[in-house]
Amino acid sequence: MRHLQLIFIFLLLLTLPLSVNSEETGVLYLWEISSGNVWESFGDETSQQKYKGMTSNGKPHGKGSLSYPDGKSVTGEWRDGKVWNTEHYDKDGKVLGKSVNGEWRLSWGFLFLRKVSGKWGWHEDGDAGKDYKYEGMIENGKPNGSGTYTSPSGNQYVGEFKDGIKHGQGTFIYASGSKYQGEWKDGKKHGQGTFISPNGNQYVGQWKNGKKHAQGTFTYASGSKYQGEFKDDKKHGKGTFTWKNGAKRVGEFRKGKLWNITEYDKNENILRRWVNGVKLVDKKKEKLLFLRK
């Protein structure tokens, strides 16, 4: 008899979590009544918010999605009928914001960068014709996440922000016609990126603190090309400069100047050399070059 009692208690314990938790998958509708909002298993999705997903005790709890009559939607995790870790979208799928651990973190909106009482800052009101305008994700009153920034002069940046500063992947189009596409850090070009000038010059390579740095390739509109190392926006280190006709200079550059360089014609015949920044003069070769001209 004692054994039967133990078995009965054991079976009762096994079923207890199911009755307490009562988690299941279902569809719920949000009803707005005078005493507050309540979730019910019946409703009309054309006029009410509709939830589909995990539920517990008649409320959204766990993974699920919510749809609004106007087309907006919410997906993610819910707890006790409230959003917990969710992303919110408009009818076209654009992210409006998100919640993290029950707190609203990001929202989509407009901000203006302007000077007030002598200090620059982001504000919700402004003049798009005079102030710097931002449209995109906002957190703590600043651009955070993806967005578009436009200046009164016509410059435009489309990409990622962090605490109000360009940071991450983005494209900056200058009013002059120049364009940079690539990585940013703390508001400056930093990492891999491509810069194209209106005259057709193009640089593809590494950047550091807003300047060309490390490995890169600079192609001139004329067809000439430099491929090698840069530092502080200048040719610096090992590299090769090649003219359109095939002639080239190969070796070491320093601060944009020829340092230890050998120059070749298109048939790879040596024409001249530089050692420690000084051009070596071969009188016979110089005379021959003069006669060829």
From TrEMBL:
Keyword NAD carried by entry: no
Record carries keyword Manganese: no
InterPro entries hit by this protein: MORN (IPR003409)
Keywords: Repeat
Region called Disordered, residue ranges: 49-70
Pfam families (UniProt xref): MORN
Signal peptide: none
Biased composition (Polar residues): 49-58
Protein known as: MORN repeat-containing protein
Origin species: marine metagenome
